[in-house]
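Check this:
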Amino acid sequence: MTERLARHAALHPKRVLAIWGGIIVVSIAAITLLLPSALTTDATVTNDPESQQGYDAIRNAFPPTGDDVHEVVLVSAPGADVTADAGVRAEVERLAAELERTGQTRNLVTYYESRDESLVSPDRDSTVIAVTMGPDGEDGIGDVLEVVERADGEPYEVTITGEFTADHDFLELSNKDLKEGELFFGLPASLIVLLLVFGAVVASLVPLLLAIVSIVFALALVAIVGQVWDISFFVVNMLSGMGLALGVDYALFIVSRFREERAQGLERVEAIAATARSASRAVLFSGSAFVIALTGMLLVPDTILRSLAAGAILVGFTAVAAATTLLPAVLSLLGDKVDALRLPLVGRGGSGEGRFWGWVVSRVQRRPLVSLVVSAAVLIALALPALDLLTGSAGVRTIPDGYASKDGFNALERELGVGTLDSAQVVVEGDVAAPPIRRGIEELRDTLASDPEFRSPELTVSPSNDLAIVEALVVGDSRDEAAVQAIERLRQDVVPAAFGGAGVTTYVTGETAEIVDYREVMARWLPIVFLFVLGFSFILLMLAFRSIVVPAKAIVLNLLSVGAAYGLIVLVFQKGVGNELLGFPKVDAIEAWLPLFLFSVLFGLSMDYHVFLLSRIRERFTHTGDSSEAVAFGVRTTARLITGAALIIIVVFVGFATGELVMFQQMGFGVAVALLLDATVIRSVLVPAAMELLGERNWYLPRWLEWLPHLEVESPARVPDRPPSA
C-alpha cells in the first residue's frame, strides 16, 4: 500500500500538492472559525466519584441561586482599621462600583453592606470584596483584572484571586510556554539538528514543512471534533509538540532512505518506491504503534487525558498521511535538489554508517552479557526513586509570582489565613433532625473547628431536614498535599467516627476532594492502560516482525526507559535533587495524570525507534541470514538517524521544560530524559546486547502461530526469501 501511494504521488506530484494545498486552506479556515469555541478550561472525570455525588446531592437539596463566589478582591490598607476608616470605605465602594460597570459581574458583597466579619482580616487592615461573575465569567475576567490592576497602588494594595483568575493565568502561561518553548526554541533547535544530520538546507527544511502541515491539519480536525465533545485547551500544546516530533521524525527517516537509494543508483521514481517499501512501511507501523499507545488514554474517564490523547492520535494520523503521500510528491519534484545548499563541514550522502556507533556496537557485541547487565542495572537504579512517587495536582501556589492569581493568593493567605475560596464540604443525607445524627453533625463541626487545616466551619440544613452541609475553608492552597491529606483523613477517620451506625449517607466533596478522587482514578486506571497498551503493542510487533521474542524484548526495554523517567522526575521535582540547578521548583507531588500520560507517550515514541532499528536489522538479516552482522549493520546505519530524531523530540520537550507551568516542566523533563536514555543506552547498548545473546532466536515464532497474516516491516518486493537458517 505504501509503495502504491508513493508511486502515484511521485508520478503525479502537482496533483497531490494541489490536494494538500486545498486541505491546508480548509484547515486554516476551520481553525480560525471553530477552534476558539472548541476549547475549554474545564476538566472533569466521568466515573461519578464521591465528590461529584456530593455536588449532585447539594444541587438536589439547594437549587442553584447563581450567587456562588468566584473571585475575591482584597483591599489592604497597612496601618488602618478598614472597619472605621472612611477613606478605605470610599475606595472599596468606588472599586465595587467600577467592577459592576464592567458588566461582567452578577453580584458583589462588601463588609460595609453585609457587616460580615469573615470579610475582614484579623488585624483589621484588609477587607474582601466577594465577586460573583456573570454567565460569561471565563471570557469576562479580563475586564475585571484590568479594573483591579488600575486600582492597585499607593496607599492601598489591591489584589484578586479565584477560579476564573487562576484559569486565565494558566491559559496565559500555557500559550506563553507554547510560543516560547516550541516556536522560539523547539523549531530552531530542530532545524539545527536536521542540518547536522542531513548536511543540506533543503533536506532539513522538508521535515519541518511536513511537521507544520501535519499540525495545521490536525488542529483543524480538533476544531471540528470540539464542536461535538469538549476539548481541553492543553490539547494545543500536546498536538503542537507531538506534531513537530512525529512529522520531523517520519520525514527524517524517509528523506534519509531516499537519499540512500539515490546514492545506490536508483532512478528518482524507483528510489521513492523503494523508500516507500522500507522506510514508509516502517513509518506506517511505528505510527500505528504510537496511536495504539495513545489510545489507552482514551479509556480513562478524564476529559483532559482524553483531549491530550485525541490531539496526539489525530496528529499521528495526519503525520503518517503526509509522510506517505505529500512527502513522496515533494521528493519527486525536488529529486536530487533535496541535497541543495549543502553545508561543507557536515554534509553527507545517504544515511551513512556512523563510525562512532559502529565502534560502540562492536564493543557491545564482544561482551554482550556484561553490557546488558551493567546498562540494565543503571536504568533500574534510576527507576528506584519512583517507589516514592506521590501524585497530586498543581495549584495556584505553583504559578510564578507576578501573575494576578498568585499575588492575590499570597495576599489572601497572609491576611486571612486562606489562599483560595475552595472549601471542604461534608454532605449528610438522612433525617438530620434526629438526635443521633444531630449529635454527629455537631461533633463533626467541633472537630473541624479544632483542626488547624480548616477554618470557619459552618452548618447549613435543607428546609426539609433531609440534608445538611458542614462546610469549612481549607487553609492555604486547596491543592497542597497537606489539604489532600486532610480530606483523606476526613473521609477515612473523622466522618465515619462522627456518624458510625447512624444510618446516614455521607459525601466529602469540594475542590480538594476532587483532587483526591482524581488521584484515585489515575491510580486505578494506570495498570489497565499498561495492560491495554502492552497487549496491543505486542500483537502489532509480532505481526510486523513474525516473532514473539522481538515484541517481548521491546516491551521490557521500553519499560526500563519509562521507569527511569519516573525515577528521575521524582528525584528532581519531588525530592529536590538538582532541581535548582535545572531551574525547576521542588513540589510536594507529581501531577496525577503524568505517570499515565508519560507511559503512553514514551511507549509510543520509543516504539518509533524500535521499529526503525529492527526493520533495518530484519531487512539485513533476511538478506544475509547472519544475526550478528545484521545487528551491527542495523545499529551502524540507523543510530545517527535515531539519535537525530530523538534529539529533535528532546529539544521540543525541553522547550516545554523551560516553561513556567510546573506540569509542563515535569512533562518536558520526563519525555526528554527518557528519550535520551532510549536513543543511547537502550538502542545502542541494550538492544544489540540482547539480540547478540539471543541470536536467531530473536525471530522465533511458534509453529502454532504460523497462520498469522504476513504484515512484515521488511520490503517483500526487494529482498529474497528468508534463508532456511532464519
Observations:
- The CA atoms of residues 200 and 342 lie 4 Å apart.
- The mean pLDDT is 85.
- The domain at 1-38+200-342 is CATH 1.20.1640.10 (Multidrug efflux transporter AcrB transmembrane fold).
